[in-house]
Amino acid sequence: MVAAPQYGTIVLIGLRSQRIYNVDVYFSDVVDGLANFDGGAGASATSPTSFTCPEEVILTDMSIVTGMTDTTKVQVLRNNQPTGDFLRFTQHLTTSPARSPIRIGFRGGTELRCIQKA
């Protein structure tokens, strides 16, 4: 199969500010490849592979456009350490009105990464 890169969004909520951070993400659809996060000009294959949390946040949602062929989920990392959470693409499609709820916490300054898995 041929990889089918897609775009998505990760939503984080600041615990103190209650600000909502909508972060664009580019998924290359490559097994064990890191997702790319918006570095200021939108997410693409050349964007940073991490998002630095500006304050203590809770990751509350991830949405992705359908069509991945080589990967089925992402493993969430906190400062390069697995959180133990895997988010399946089928449960987090942009077209789904009832995506699975997420509540993964990150301290301010923590790097959030996602590894694409088969």
Brief description of this entry?
With 118 residues, this protein is mainly β. The chain is built from no helices and 9 strands.
Characterization of the model:
The chain is an all-beta fold and 118 residues long. It has one domain (6-117). It has no helices and 9 strands. The strands form 2 sheets. Strands 3-2-1-5-8 form a 5-stranded antiparallel sheet, with no helix packed on it. The protein is globular. The model has no long low-confidence stretch (mean pLDDT 95).
Number of helices: 0
Helix content: under 10%
**What composes the largest sheet?**
5 strands, antiparallel
**Low-pLDDT regions:** none
Structural class: mainly beta
Distance between the termini: 13 Å
Number of DSSP-assigned strands: 9
* Beta-strand percentage range: 35-45%
Order of strands in the sheet with the most strands?
3-2-1-5-8
Number of discrete domains: 1
Q: What Rg, in angstroms, do the CA atoms define?
A: 13 Å
* Average pLDDT metric: 95
The helix-strand sequence is EEEEEEEEE
Shape type: globular
